[in-house]
Design a protein that fits this description.
By secondary structure, this protein is mostly helical. It has two domains: about 50 residues, no CATH class; about 80 residues, Serine Threonine Protein Phosphatase 5, Tetratricopeptide repeat (Alpha Horseshoe), CATH 1.25.40. The protein is built from seven helices and no strands. The protein starts with a helix and ends in a 7-residue tail after the last helix.
C-alpha cells in the first residue's frame, strides 16, 4: 500500500480528489483480486480517520459497512458527513446524504425526513430571490 497510498495522498494534496478516489478504487480491487481483501477495512478506516468529511471516501466506507452487515455503522458515517455538510453550508449535498440514510431504513427515518424538509424550507427562506423568475 505504500506506493498506492503515496499516490492517493499526492492527488489529494494537489487538489485532485477524483483522481485520488480512482487510485484508491484500483488499489482496493487489486487487493481483493489477490486474496488480500482483509486489508481493505484497515485501509479505509485509516483514510476515513484522516478525511472524515470526504464524501467519496464515506460513500466507499458505507458500501463496505453494508457489505459487512454493519448498517448502523454505515448510518452513523453518513450522519456524521451530513452534519459536516450542514455546518459547511452545503445544503444540497447534505440533503443527498440524508436521502442515502433514509434509503437504509434507519429506526429514526421520520427524523431524517423532517430534517430534509427543514433544510429545504430554510433554503427557500434564505434565498427568496430564487423564485423571482
Amino acid at each position: 500500500m505504500m506506493v498506492a497510498r503515496s499516490i492517493i495522498d499526492l492527488y489529494y494534496n494537489v487538489g485532485r480528489p477524483d483522481a485520488a478516489l480512482q487510485q484508491l478504487d484500483r488499489h482496493l480491487v487489486y487487493l481483493v483480486r489477490n486474496g488480500r481483501g482483509r486489508e481493505v477495512p484497515l485501509i479505509m478506516n485509516e483514510l476515513i480517520d484522516e478525511r472524515p468529511n470526504d464524501a467519496g471516501l464515506v460513500d466507499r466506507m458505507v458500501r463496505l459497512k453494508i457489505h459487512q452487515g454493519k448498517k448502523e455503522q454505515a448510518i452513523a458515517l453518513l450522519d456524521q458527513l451530513g452534519e459536516a455538510q450542514i455546518d459547511a453550508g452545503e445544503t444540497e449535498e447534505a440533503i443527498a446524504t440524508i436521502e442515502k440514510i433514509i434509503a437504509l431504513e434507519p429506526e429514526e427515518e421520520t427524523k431524517y425526513a423532517d430534517l430534509i424538509e427543514s433544510l429545504r424550507s430554510a433554503g427557500e427562506i434564505e434565498n427568496p430571490e430564487s423564485d423571482a423568475y
